[in-house]
TrEMBL record, chain A:
InterPro entries: Thioredoxin-like_sf (IPR036249)
Taxonomic superkingdom: Bacteria
Species in which this protein is naturally found: Candidatus Segetimicrobium genomatis
Protein name: Thioredoxin-like fold domain-containing protein
């Protein structure tokens, strides 16, 4: 059964058509791939996350989904800084460093859509003061945002 | 700057390590943390704090 109802899919398709600019690649990392699923809940969640991303990617020619296995493709995982699964790196014209860990469902589905659009546009509406402060940062900043789907 | 959005329920070890009892919970460089969506200038104050940068007072845009 698809994750998106036809009505929701139509809404997202229209939004993507209006707001996407550059191409976006969803680099998804599952524990395993190739039709094999890990037994238990972790494998089921990863497969469900992959299905959601596949349905989203099908809604715009500008979105591509690459599915990796953390175990089978450790080099790709290292390149994107992925150490846990399920994980999704949302990559536009450049890598803006944003990773989504877990299933992008519930309220977090809207987060995923906003993230794809922001990365595609390659710009955000941040204030000049914010931009100025960011230029003064000399050390790396690692932001973790903990969320739940409800 | 890198940002991880973490589904707390799927990564209970991280949720426990960072004492996530309410969401959204934001942790910056493992040192500065707060709960709830914040206006951008407030958010940046936390970033500055984590980076050890002297933060100029926000100006009216």
């Amino acid at each position: 059964m698809p994750f998106l109802q036809e009505q929701d899919a139509a809404f997202v398709r229209t939004r993507f058509a209006q707001e996407l600019r550059g191409d976006v690649t969803l680099e998804f990392f599952a524990p395993v791939t190739g039709g094999l699923a890990l037994p238990g809940q972790d494998g089921a969640i990863a497969e469900y996350a992959r299905q959601i991303l596949a349905e989203v990617a099908a809604l715009s020619p500008k979105i591509r989904l690459n599915v990796h296995s953390l175990m089978a493709d450790p080099e790709a995982a290292k390149a994107f800084g992925i150490t846990r699964t399920p994980a999704t790196a949302v990559i536009g014209a450049q890598d803006y460093g944003v990773r989504f860990y877990g299933m992008p469902a519930g309220y977090e589905f809207a987060t995923l859509l906003d993230l794809i659009i922001a990365v595609s546009q390659g710009s955000t509406a941040i204030a000049p003061h914010t931009r100025e402060l960011l230029t003064r940062l000399s050390q790396d900043i690692h932001v973790q945002v903990f969320v739940t789907p409800t | 700057m890198r940002t991880d959005i973490v589904e707390a329920g799927e990564f209970p070890d991280l949720a426990e390590r960072y004492n996530v009892y309410a969401v959204p919970k934001i942790v910056i460089n493992d040192t500065v943390e707060f709960v709830g969506a914040q206006p951008e200038p407030h958010f940046m104050r936390y970033v500055a704090q984590a980076a050890g940068v002297q933060e100029a007072p926000p100006t009216d845009e």
